Amino acid sequence: MQNMKNTLLLGCFGMLLIVAAAGCKPEYPACDTDKDCKDKEFCVGRKCQQCRNAGDCGEGRQCANGRCNAIPGYCKDASQCSEGEVCKGNRCQACTSDTQCPSGKLCMTGRCSIPQCTKDENCAQDQECVHGLCVGAQKKPVKPPCDLETVYFDFDKSNLTSAATSALAQNATCLKKTDMAVSLVGRADPRGTTEYNMALSDRRAQSVKDYLKRTGIAAGRMSIVPRGSLDATGTSETGWAKDRRVDSEWR
Predict the structure, then answer these.
(1) Phi-psi region of 164 (alpha: psi -120 to 50; beta: other; left: phi over 0)
(2) Which tens digit of pLDDT belongs to each residue from 98-114?
(3) In whole angstroms, what is the distance from residue 251 CA to residue 239 CA?
């Protein structure tokens, strides 16, 4: 009889332990296992989160601090990019060659565009076809009235510094002395990917163009030519500072 009582007491004590253990589940978002988290969440470092790595997030998303966030500029094809951009390495970016553009388009100033012409016969009698554009026939070179200043930028920036606006003010005065056109050649130092530097140099050239437009220079006289880090020569900050620039070239 005593053994039976002991057995009953042990059984009851075991049941109490099971009930107590069941009542000690961590309070969300704390966790011990994935079962303590919501559906499609994971227990990482004893805390429930959306992902452990990019494989938990799906296409076009990345895992950052336990959350699945959209990847900026992600694309599967050019249809998901802005007009004229190409999709390369799952990123929307400016084109760098005609081969990146769809049939019937050329890479013109970093954008895939339909050309005005494909041969000289498509242009007026006094024009010729140059890389998809009808341009005037070669004339005797006209000497520019003055030299144009180079504009420099801070690291990873495309906004104009006070020194840059001062140089551009001089360029605007020079440009108003003639109707000659200019190419705004954007450049970047070699740090960063080829694609990123190409887009950064495009933004820098656009900043210069926007400033000159505000001074009264016609937009049609200025063309943007992004070069990225293709011409960079610096190997230290002193040299890199000279690589981060926009050159205004007469044409």
Answers:
(1) alpha
(2) 999 998 899 988 899 99
(3) 27
Do 34 and 123 lie in one domain? The reply is no
Instruction: Tell me the two tokens of residue 38.
Output: 């919501």
Residue-number span of the structural domain to which 89 is assigned: 78-136
Q: Report DSSP state, residue 102.
A: P
Non-local CB neighbours of 60 within 8 Å, separated by 6+ positions? 70, 71, 74, 76
Closest CA to 171 of 194, 147, 153: 147
Q: Tell me if residue 8 falls in helix, strand or coil.
A: helix
Give the pLDDT confidence of 27-57 residue by residue, as tens digits: 999 999 999 999 989 999 999 999 999 889 8
- Phi, psi of 68, deg, nearest 5: -90, 115
Separation between Cα atoms, residue 110 and residue 17, nearest integer Å: 70
Residue type at 126? D
CATH number at residue 179: 3.30.1330.60
Q: Are strands 47-49 and 42-44 parallel, antiparallel or unpaired?
A: antiparallel
C-alpha distances out from residue 66 to 20, 61, 99, Å: 31, 12, 39
